[in-house]
## 1
Amino acid sequence: MPKLLFAVSEVHPLIKTGGLADVAYSLPRALQPHLHDLRLVLPAYRQAVQRARRLQPVATLQLTGFEQPIRILEGLLPDSDIPLWLVDAPEFFDREGGPYGDVDGLDWPDNAARYTLFARAIVEIACNRAGLDWQPDVVHCNDWQTGLVPALLHHEPARPATVFTLHNLAYQGLFDAAVFNTLALPKFLWTAEGLEFYGRLSFLKGGITFADRLTTVSPTYAREIQTADFGYGLEGLLDFRSAHLTGILNGADYTLWEPALDTLIEQPYDANSLELKAINKHTLQRSLGLPQTTGVALIGMIGRLVEQKGIDLLLEILPTLLGQPIQLAVLGSGEKKFEQALRGIARRQPQQVAVYIGYHEELAHRIEAGADMFLMPSRFEPCGLNQLYSLRYGTVPIVRRTGGLADSVVDATPSRLQDGSATGFVFDAATPAALLHTLQRALALYHQPEQWRKLAVRGMQQDFSWGSNVDAYLAVYQQALADRGTPPSAQ
Ligand code: ADP
């Protein structure tokens, strides 16, 4: 039973920018019954410190190259008894703003130094040099912010095994070559076999190159990232490491996302009382200022407003789509041009379009509960969580066939409808025409209420909890240990 250190840069409900925070909250909790001894490590961001309860300083580190001592604060991952360590370096993490950027969304200029410090603190903990009297057998790192950890640990004689999970290859932690020299990293890491990526410094490459085992968040995305279309130039390296790469679909946390138990929605419901969903629809319409018309399909969309999510595809077809009796509720934030375009449409057509720009956890639940359909026309989607939540809420997902969307939604073709396996609508081409065509298919079925109900109920019956995917992670930890050799705790 390996001891696990889960290293991550965001975790619900302490600090969140996207699905990574959801996974960092739900995966450790799902793993805990199988592992017993696991701990989570996170930077001590101002917001995280404010939200975490009963933090105690338990150790102080002095890292060469950093003037100030670094404290380790100990608390618990909320709603669990999993120990949480916060790496407290106020100069880097005690700031107003997000984890990766300021209040305007601009990256912090010292991100390379911030996540180098975080990685070095993790290495000290992993090698039992942090004064915590604890050493993991496996360190599970996530995304570029922890990419240096496997690279730095690789050269440690008494190191634990390392697992690196790619949640989104589009975010790589790329910095100018000159930054490398400011970080006091071992010089031998600056090679094409190390952290150098076409003349730049890549944190992500450190994880991909040096981790004993790699995972990503869906089987389809694991295949996609080995191709030039999705690999961002790392496809060759990922192909080279493919024998050590596993795609494991993220699980939905049904303690948070379950319409029968959701305290953030007006009216709880389940598959046997799906008609009650209409109450949530009316409440949502009222709160968003949309007419409470029945028989009009309400389409929901939640997420980062960036090209990845296909928001531009939606904007292109909106003039045509809004010629039909539909309503649209969008919640998100991201690129200013998309925010402005959406706001403009909502101003011009308030009878049909409601837009909330910003982050709003409760509204996200109310959209899932109140919308009839949920739109995710992503160009790529490593896993995606909202389609899993939508399935659970009987809010029929309309998705592009990519990554985790392809692995979780079954298209409502006539034969799939007939054999009862359909759960949503899936399209292939990342084009406005393909999206519009698929929305038309969905709207046509929506106007056949009995068929629609069956499709929604079928979705609600799917089980995308962590379940067997936890076993897949446990197997990867064992493989990493086997690759690494004797675990430190047995030495
Ligand atoms: P990604 O990690 O690429 O942003 P995911 O679908 O994997 O996308 O996860 C997104 C998570 O963040 C979901 O839990 C979603 O509900 C939430 N989310 C995204 N944007 C917002 C927002 N503006 N308000 C509330 N929740 C949001």
## 2
Amino acid sequence: MDKFSKVTFIGFGLINSSLAHVFKLKTLAKETTAFSRSKETREKIKNLNIVDNVNDNIRESVKDSDLIVLGVPVGAMESIVSEIAPFLKSGTIITDVGSVKKHLIDSILPILPSDVYFVPGHPIAGTEKSGPEAGFAELFNGRWCILTPNKNTSQVALEKIKFIWEQAGMQITIMDAEYHDRVLAITSHIPHLVAFSIVGTVTELEDQLKTEVIKYSAGGFRDFTRIAASDPIMWRDVFLNNSEAVLEMLGRFIEDLTALQKSIRWQDGDSLESLFTKTREIRKGIISEEQD
Ligand code: NAP
């Protein structure tokens, strides 16, 4: 596969900086540029020495690029695309790493020039850390990357984006955008919401009890705090942009939670044990798929 001549990373947090490490390691482009809106982040990027240029002007940064990677919160992508659209050269590929797909595609397609290709993507890999210094090339290794092509995706553009994620060590799957959002609602968005909610409950406890909870957090709470430490803006945008699928899955989850509440109230140990046995099987499945 031919190298890209110039890739521009717009937004340079955990995901785009990790991808930039891969670009550097595998020399996937002749030139790499990073744009980030804050001076503080741009200084951090310069110190990392993983891209050729760091630019404070978004229009200039996309000039002559044949690949743009959007790595900002989902809610910021539409206005960024409308700002850069007039400055893109014909044949440019835009891809993104956002956690929500349908709403993003619906908002971007109408503002995209007809000679620019859009390949929406979502690498299912991450940590609770943010910022350019959180990135590392191995983040994606062995994980899945979901691509959700649409009428603005050419086969050539799709193959090029597949190739990048394969170079990052990912397995690729193609999915309908709406289906992606429903799958991610249950595998990622609801678990994060539960963590935000449980940890949020602790913030409301009286001081003495709060101290005990933090002290004895190894009992399970600690794992929720790791998830609930994820970037607040990114997660705000995920819930605002995937509200339909999240609300549907949340409805199911609340029903199941209520059933558990009933089992506990009625001392129905058989129901509890039967559910906990089934959930153990799910964990075994994840381990056997090497996704633990
Ligand atoms: P991050 O570490 O929080 O970095 C965010 C980047 O976006 C920074 O460069 C920030 O710029 C920029 N940014 C934030 N708000 C912006 C705005 N309103 N306008 C322009 N730029 C803005 O982000 P991340 O974790 O890499 O996430 C990036 C994308 O990847 C998100 O869409 C997320 O849904 C998706 N994703 C995340 C994970 C994960 O686990 N984190 C996994 C898969 C996909 P400044 O620092 O200069 O302000």
## 3
Amino acid sequence: MKTTIKRIGIMTGGGDCPGLNPVIRAVTKTAINEHGWEVIGIRNGYKGLYDNDWVKLDSASTSGLLHKGGTMLYSSNKDNLFHYLVEENGEMVYKDVSDVGVENIKNLGIDVMFIIGGDGTLTSARDFARKGVNVIAIPKTIDNDLASTDTTFGFNTAVGVATEALDRLHTTAMSHHRIMVLEVMGRYAGWIALHAGIAGGADAILLPEIPYDIHKVAKKIEDRKAKGKNFSVIVVGEGAKPVDGEVVVREIIEDSPDPIRLGGIGLKVAHDLEKLCGNEARATILGHLQRGGSPSSSDRILSTRYGVAAVKLAVEGKFGNMVTLKGDQMSYDSLENVIGRKSKNVNPNGELVEMAKSIGIVFGD
Ligand code: F6P
């Protein structure tokens, strides 16, 4: 593909995440202001690439976006053009239709595709790069579990929402002498649970990285009761599991690149603690509230940095790469390295966990 850039495409794939709109805004503004490029937004992720569903983006259409949650380009977290459900002779069959995507990119005169997404979306981004498309990838997930970058936008907002939920659960827990359990997202990584648990003053934090013994959590609750605190607040990452048990699966979405949806461990923890401690227990599953709505100020800045750094990579011709944040510097890594790398997990012996233990937070280990 030619590398003189006149027109770029941008799309969002996978689950939405606070900060997507600010990235779209940053890429579009930088592309237009600094380079005079035209910008095409592909709608609905890879589905839109297949359907040739696009919209022209300019300063007007991307203004007023900074504080808005979701993605103005819409998203899809199922569609993979390398394994896509199409109708053939009256039957629905999976086929590799990626050539249609490449053709549409060519026909639209797109010189570089900016693809914003998580694992699944970026795996396809790598595969399009292998087919010769000039791809610049931008990582996205509230879970903060991508190994190649230190922090993803959306994470700070999700932690903020979960922290506020904990503050609210504290007062109702205290009023009713209850155990309140908050289940947060994060898949197999406990970053949201750990950060929100510390910020929200949880009594116990249960992480996917530290299988828990429920009796140790119950002991913490009993110790608090002995000190006159007849209520407790617990945060549970959705991927947490007991030492002698398994993760709780909410749903299997067959045609998704990442079919397992976790959820429900909070209910189990509440039920088990009620039986062991005698206090009434309630569980709140925070769910998609963590992903919706306005990005925090820190995520607005971070997503703008990702967007501007992505354009810089394209100007330098560094295609097939993903923008990263390393320490306080924007950097990049090859999609070939990024995809398939083990996800980034909480270190059970790391400083944050040790610090939390020092102030009395229990992890059930
Ligand atoms: O990866 C982001 C995430 O929000 C996870 O934290 C969560 O497990 C999953 O996506 C939920 O996916 P869906 O939107 O398909 O329910």
## 4
Amino acid sequence: MKPKSKAMGRVACLLSASIASLLRGAGSFDEHPYSLSASFKTPMDTLAGLTDWAQGINYVYAITTVVVAIVFLAVSIPLVYAIRRFRVSDEEWGTLVPPKQVHGNAILEFTWTIIPVILLLFIAVPTWQIIFRQPEKHQVPANAMRIEVIGHQWWWEFRYPELGITTANELHLPEKTPVYFEISSADVIHSFWVPQFGGKMDALPGKGAENHLFFTTPVLQHPEKKGGEYYQGQCAELCGLSHALMRFEAVLHEKAEFERWATVFHNPPVVQTDLEKKGEQVFMQCMSCHTIEKTPSADLEKQLLAMTPPAHKAGPNLTDFGSRRMIAAGTRHNTAENFHDWVHDPSSIKPGSKMVSLGLPQADIEAVAAYLRYSTAKTY
Ligand code: CUA
């Protein structure tokens, strides 16, 4: 094949692959870990904004789109007209005289300076209005729920200081509630983003480098369904090898259901079968990095936090692990098989993962899976 047709073939191949992935739709992340979908109402659709913050941003998008559409028409219509009206035939070519020159025409120059200024003001004023809707820390309404968001390579930690809850990768939220996020990072720059809830906010490392985000959570779209509504979140700042696999889910609840989640969270694991009891023992090897409330791992965490300076465990809090829909930062369904693959070799699922493979024998992995997946399942 000639190099040219080879390149053409490659382009055609890429195009057909993209079209196929569009037609296939969103699918689950397990099935199509890297598939894209351009259809509306997908889990990552910013245009289907649900919060006041997301709708404010979309309002600015709409104004900008109208302004640029007017500019486009104002330029392209006279352009097409001029091309057709003043077309020169072959005979006329050579007999043409240059048109009258308008260099230095003050009125013209003033006009084409002032028009873009007016257009930019049209876009800038609503943009400022939306930006300044984000309150300063001291302006946050007293009834707002405070949530600390901490980015880690490559997972998300969520702390609810008022509720004494620390969890990971599932951001539980009550509906119709103002929420104030305090966003930071434990290592490199990440970016907190739930597309349907509005714009991204960088998670910066370092003392005092905290960013904030404030919005009112939306109403449930399907209140008849039990168990909360799931919205996809994604790290939106390149943060290393597994950046694309740094996902999470925001789970929206009815207010009463959220209260129940917050209460049940503090219940100790219910260890029943022999396998689960064995898993509880195996988990002792995991507790230097992970914590489950009301177990020795939580006592160890308290000791670490009491040190000066306080030490933090490296891994996510697994208190309600059994209730989580996904594992490995929202990238795999919480099934026994995926759990096995994850614990056996974390880097095979998330390249560069900081979680080490402990080289546990098969029987130990099965036991710890039973303990984590069943004993820590909280019903709410
Ligand atoms: Cu964290 Cu990208």
